[in-house]
Design a protein that fits this description.
This protein starts with 13 loop residues before the first helix and ends with a helix. Helix content is about 35%, strand content about 15%. The chain is α/β, with parallel strands linked by helices. The strands form three sheets. It has a seven-stranded mixed β-sheet with strand order 1-9-8-5-4-2-3, with helices on both faces. The chain has a three-stranded antiparallel β-sheet with strand order 10-11-12.
């Protein structure tokens, strides 16, 4: 296979960063000049701005999205042994964070059309030990807020959103992160709003929860050398916050670019539905911010997912799989369930393929991708 760069890369960060490179450099220079590296002004500014953009009052920056969930659950009063409902179809970090909080993750199958948690299936997973549900707003699409609130109210559960892939997504009048008691975000570089390293944030409307989170992230200390909680060291540093401060004003436009690209994909892929190429359903209209653009290669297709991925690579098209194994089939987490327990998630992981998606992806590139899919199917 050729070592030439792909005709259509899976992501292309330079299209976002080059136009604002001087702004980012100046923000970093200022941090270095001031020597304000930890829990400083840039972090406070970003916490306030991102929380406001998400429709809530408080933001607490931490080292990564996983910590935002794990420490956030602790701040919410989750105790060891409490059961937390999570989707089987999610990145493993969701389950890891629950375990780090010493709670018990209870997996729930997914909706085969949207890949989101199936709240009907969740009904049968609730027990007397269930204390919370973590809806994962997957691929940039939110779980229905109305259905989620109805479910949580009916069972007296905390809603703790995993919004790592849903920066400024919206649905039914809610922004991602504004539905429940708290929400976790990741600023991993590939996210819609990405830092230049790891980073995360908890957002909430609860001032006491926010203050407890600030204590937990800083060694459990509300003030220096006074440790009132068993906390840890998990702080979003000022250099990353400064980068994110520069990028945040552009996020709405970048999300809009992704939505436009998705609509072009949808139009071009529509004739291929009868050939087994089916995009993951969008039930959020323009509120879906397409962190990923994911298709299913169903049984009607002349080739399977892995073969299509290989053929696209031969055409210079980079793709991904999010995710190839549901949580309970991961070797380290087989205690979460057995093969066959979550059949829709298990089927989905064999069908899904993530196509190139990023701000600046051109219609010409999208047409190249779809043309390569057609050629692959007709081989």
């Amino acid at each position: 296979m050729s070592n030439r760069p792909p005709k259509v890369p899976f992501v292309n960060f330079s299209l976002q960063h080059q136009p604002i490179q001087s702004q980012i450099a100046e923000a970093i220079r200022k941090i270095i000049q001031e020597g304000d590296f930890i829990l400083g002004h840039a972090l406070a500014e970003f916490e306030t701005a991102f929380a406001a953009a998400s429709g809530v009052k408080y933001g607490v920056g931490v080292a990564c999205g996983t910590d935002a969930i794990a420490l956030g659950l602790q701040a919410c009063g989750i105790n060891p042994g409490d059961e937390i409902l999570i989707p089987a179809n999610t990145f493993i970090a969701t389950a890891i964070a629950v375990l780090q909080a010493k709670a018990i993750p209870i997996l729930v199958d997914c909706d085969p059309e949207t890949a989101l948690i199936d709240l009907t299936a969740a009904e049968t997973a609730v027990t007397s030990k269930t204390k919370a549900i973590i809806p994962v707003h997957l691929y940039g699409q939110m779980v229905s807020p109305r259905q989620l609130l109805d479910f949580a109210n009916r069972h007296d559960l905390i809603i703790f959103e995993d919004a790592a892939q849903a920066h400024l997504a919206h649905r039914e009048g809610y922004r991602a992160g504004s539905i429940g008691k708290a929400a976790a975000f990741s600023f991993y570089p590939s996210k819609n709003l990405g830092s230049f390293g790891d980073g995360g944030m908890l957002i909430t409307n609860d001032p006491e929860l926010a203050e407890k989170m600030r204590t937990l992230r800083n060694y459990g200390a509300p003030s220096k050398y006074l440790h009132t909680e068993i906390g840890t060291n998990s702080r979003l540093d000022n250099l990353q916050a400064a980068v994110l401060n520069v990028k945040l004003p552009y996020l709405e436009k970048w999300n809009s670019d992704r939505t436009d690209a998705a609509q072009h994909y949808n139009t071009l892929l529509a004739p291929l539905k009868h050939k087994g190429i089916v995009p993951i359903a969008n039930h959020s209209s323009s509120g879906h911010i397409y962190h990923l653009y994911v298709i299913k290669i169903t049984e009607e297709s002349s080739i399977d997912r892995n073969t299509l991925q290989e053929k696209l690579a031969q055409h210079g098209i980079q793709t991904g799989i999010h995710y190839p194994l549901p949580c309970h089939l991961q070797p380290a987490y087989q205690n979460l369930g057995n093969r066959g327990d979550f059949p829709r998630a298990e089927t989905l992981c064999q069908q899904i393929l993530s196509l190139p998606m990023y701000p600046g992806l051109s219609n010409t590139q999208i047409e190249q991708v779809v043309r390569a899919i057609v050629l692959s199917l007709n081989c």
